[in-house]
Specification:
This protein is α/β, with parallel strands linked by helices. It is built from 17 helices and 13 strands. About 45% of the residues lie in helices and about 15% in strands. The two termini are about 15 Å apart. The model has no long low-confidence stretch (mean pLDDT about 90).
Length: about 375
């Protein structure tokens, strides 16, 4: 079987979200599959660095200017067909929405992570909203032969917002980063732990958030909840780890208006090798996002033994189950009360940590990759049976 895969998302300098998902999925697919031929496609003037290349993988690329390729060739003319660029395929897989056209000879499959841009367009910049508008997802989603949703919540949104047939959608949960697991088991270093603590001046207990700094993640709600925590007499830091996203003006305003702003640390994008140390240092992990298609960071925090506070909306109750303290993200008082309780009660902490360890074991990339491979085989067989 010839499997084509669009790896344009792997051209990002720093991996998070969809790029991290794609990296982990493809690495595990290649690890377990010794029968099929893989053909990776991307369009760029620069060379993509793929660390898990093997003899089973061929790279096919085009060198068009991106805007010309996307808006002119793919959107208007539906040319060139991506499966034709790689020399033909039985299956062509997209790990995310993108401009793409295919011939009738190849089955097409896409993973949909979330429809936050339809649920909450106000959380996105004009540029992001224009991109989603140009993709015309409502029209183009049904051209795919199979749609893989990362959660039941995403499947529900596909049916409700895009009128996709439920029979066409398969739910496959992602897994926990193997790099984090291996790092925990083999590479954790006390000296590096102490150096990192010194670098970020983490000289007392802290509450941790890790993810993109953007409105959808409810950073302002975290800051307001933290302000109330400090007003109640609890002395701790708030560490906000992650790259800056879009529409951050209000977030910066809330930070500057906080009388505890010196104890609120924005420490920027965090490399995978640094994450374990932060998870180990923190006292509690907060993730009261307004909307998630899945939600990796809370599960990662659980793996490293952190009690988790998250939202009672979108996919988060589905993914986290009873292993997290779930709050209404619209109520910063609930965020404050949850943090205060988890910090104050060792019994609550222990119960959340124990439940988190059980919950995280449900999500492995090996299981995910095996299901994807099974879907590819099923779709390829359907193609031959036409």
């Amino acid at each position: 079987m010839r499997i084509g895969i669009d790896i344009r998302v792997l051209l990002d300098k720093n991996y998070s979200g969809v790029a991290s998902f794609t990296f982990q999925l493809l690495k595990n697919l290649i690890k377990i599959d010794r029968q099929n031929a893989y053909y990776f496609f991307y369009n760029s003037f620069k060379e993509a660095k793929i660390p898990f290349l093997s003899k089973e993988i061929s790279i096919k690329k085009t060198r068009y200017p991106n805007k010309f390729f996307n808006y002119f060739l793919q959107k208007i003319f539906n040319y060139p067909k991506l499966d034709k660029i790689i020399g033909g395929s039985d299956i062509f897989y997209l790990p995310h929405f993108n401009f793409a056209s295919f011939s009738k000879n190849s089955k097409s499959i896409i993973t949909v992570h979330d429809l936050s841009f339809l649920r909450y367009p106000e959380f996105f910049s004009f540029r992001k909203n224009f991109w989603h508008w140009a993709l015309n997802i409502k029209k183009n989603i049904n051209k795919f032969d199979k749609i893989i949703a990362v959660s039941q919540n995403t499947k529900n949104d596909l049916i409700e917002l895009l009128n996709v047939s439920g029979a066409k959608i398969e739910i496959v949960y992602p897994g926990i980063s193997e790099e984090l697991i291996k790092f925990q088991q083999n590479y954790f270093n006390n000296e590096a732990y102490n150096l990192l603590k010194e670098k970020y001046n983490l000289n007392k207990d802290f509450v941790l958030y890790l993810g993109t700094i953007e409105p959808r993640k409810n950073i302002s709600g975290i800051i307001k909840g933290y302000n109330k925590l400090r007003d109640s007499g609890v002395d701790c830091l708030l560490v906000l780890a992650g790259g800056w996203g879009w529409k951050t003006k209000q977030i910066k305003k809330d930070w500057k208006n906080s009388k505890y702003r010196k104890d609120i640390r924005f420490i920027g994008y965090i490399d995978e090798k640094i994450k374990p140390y932060l998870y180990k240092m923190a006292k509690v992990f907060v993730y009261p996002s307004f909307y998630e298609g899945f939600g990796f960071p809370p599960l990662e925090a659980m793996y490293f033994g952190l009690p988790v506070i998250s939202s009672n909306v979108s996919s988060l109750p589905e993914v986290l189950g009873d292993a997290a303290f779930l709050v209404n993200p619209d109520k910063d008082d609930e965020i404050f009360q949850a943090i205060n309780l988890v910090l104050a009660s060792q019994d609550v902490r222990d119960k959340l940590i124990e439940a988190g360890q059980r919950q995280v074991n449900k999500f492995t990339w090996e299981k995910t990759a095996k299901r994807y491979l099974q879907i590819f085989k099923e779709m390829s067989k359907n193609n031959y049976d036409k």
